[in-house]
Amino acid sequence: MNLVIFFGPPGCGKGTQSDVLKAELNYKKTSTGDALRVIAKQDNDLGNEVASLMRQGKLIPDATVSEVITSSLEDVSGFAGVILDGYPRTLSQVEFLDDYLTNKKSGLFSKIKVIEIDVPDSLLINRICGRYVCASCGVTYHESLRPTREAGKCDNCGGVEFSKRSDDNKETVKERLQSYHDNFANIKAFYESRNLVFAVDGAKSIEEVREDIIKIALG
Ligand code: AMP
Question: Can you give the pTM of this predicted structure?
Answer without folding.
Answer: 0.90
